[in-house]
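Worked problem 6 (solution included).
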Amino acid sequence: MERPARFENSRFLGDKRIQVVYDLDDVTDESVITELANGPHGLAFGPDTLAEARNRGYRLRST
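Solution. The predicted structure is:
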């Protein structure tokens, strides 16, 4: 999957509504990522690591 322009330098994309994080290198359902990237609920992490996402209370979800 090609990364959304708004998150082109991010690997992990969080969903603020349900506090899950998606690994953009391992996505099979692109519609979920498109919805997050185009709406106000997408969140990138700095540093862009799974450990940082978990530190903020997010859990990994695969699609």
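Discussion: The longest strand covers residues 12-15.
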